[in-house]
Design a protein that fits this description.
Blueprint lengths: L2 H15 L46 H16 L7 E2 L1 H8 L3 H13 L3 E4 L3 E4 L10 H8 L4 H23 L5 H20 L2 H17 L4 H4 L2 H10 L12 H15 L3 H11 L17
Antiparallel strand pairs: 1-3, 2-3
Helix pairs in contact: 1-7, 1-8, 2-4, 2-5, 3-4, 5-10, 6-8, 6-10, 6-12, 7-8, 7-11, 8-10, 11-12
Length: 294
């Protein structure tokens, strides 16, 4: 096993056990992937719809009360607990969550930037309809994935991945950078070792790194901006909608074939291998893009 594979495996296990040293995870972009257990946000109250506990999301972590309030309100809006056109009174929010006006104000600004709420003079702050939400925002992707819209979110993410990743694989074959090729090979090696050790955490982190890197080297800046969406899809899919989500020989083999195709500059083979990877499981036929009944 390479030094990188050993280091990543050790780091992932240390993080999962709470034994990680200062700055140890900062060396890897996949260190903050939401894999395995999640820390829950504090419960500020349970006697009303504004006091329900929620999950802690990738975009809100490490921001204290402000991030926690964004998480709470965002998840409640996305779940439908706070319906469209529902007024959000800052004073009421501050009292129920026991936070300052500044925290409430900044949190609502974040939610407004995500398209979840709107603030207008003489009208106040209100929840906006789903059609106005930024559905490509990683936080909203996560909130939908763990709410009542989870099935729609999984299907939509799968369809989006089917659009993005085969194309990215084809384009990446034309960018034969040795450092990228080595990095992708390292990720496959890490995944293979993790699978042998039954280490799903390390496998998932290496997998997320593989797919994110592949999109970033496709040479298309607009696709590159979508790499965060693919990472979010891998983190919150919640089921076998693609081959990546269960460590197995078939999934590992398709990743290896993608790397080989990229090394050979064979875009068609890279695209085909990616499509095969995204349909490893029989269950995937439920979410593979197909004509919908009207």
């Amino acid at each position: 096993m390479s030094t990188l594979a050993h280091t990543m495996t050790t780091t992932a296990r240390s993080a999962d056990s709470g034994l990680t040293g200062p700055g140890e995870l900062d060396r890897y972009p996949y260190a903050d992937a939401l894999v395995g257990g999640r820390a829950g946000a504090p419960v500020w109250g349970t006697d009303s719809e504004l006091g329900r506990p929620g999950r802690r999301s990738a975009g809100s972590r490490g921001r204290g009360l402000h991030g926690q309030l964004v998480q709470q309100l965002g998840q409640m809006i996305v779940s439908g607990d706070l319906g469209a056109d529902r007024p959000l009174v800052p004073e009421e929010i501050g009292q129920r969550f026991e936070v300052s006006r500044t925290v409430v104000r900044e949190s609502l600004r974040v939610l407004e930037a995500k398209g979840l709420v709107s603030a207008r003079p003489n009208v106040g702050t209100r929840v906006r309809p789903v059609s106005d939400w930024n559905l490509l925002d990683p936080d909203i992707i996560e909130w939908r994935a763990f709410g009542p819209q989870r099935d729609d979110q999984r299907r939509e993410l799968s369809e989006l991945r089917w659009t993005i990743e085969p194309l990215a694989a084809r384009l990446a074959a034309g960018h034969g950078r040795e450092d990228v090729q080595q990095r992708l090979s390292d990720m496959v090696e890490i995944m293979g070792h993790a699978m042998g050790q039954g280490d799903a955490l390390t496998f998932a982190r290496a997998d997320a790194e593989f797919h994110s890197l592949l999109i970033q080297v496709a040479g298309n800046r607009m696709l590159e901006h979508l790499s965060g969406i693919v990472s979010a899809a891998l983190q919150v899919s919640g089921g076998p909608v693609a081959g990546c989500e269960r460590p197995n020989e078939a999934s590992l083999g398709h990743h290896g074939r993608i790397v080989d195709a990229l090394a050979g500059g064979d875009g068609a083979a890279a695209e085909a291998a990616m499509r095969q990877l995204l349909t490893v499981h029989p269950e995937v036929e439920r979410v593979v893009p197909a004509p919908r009944e009207r």
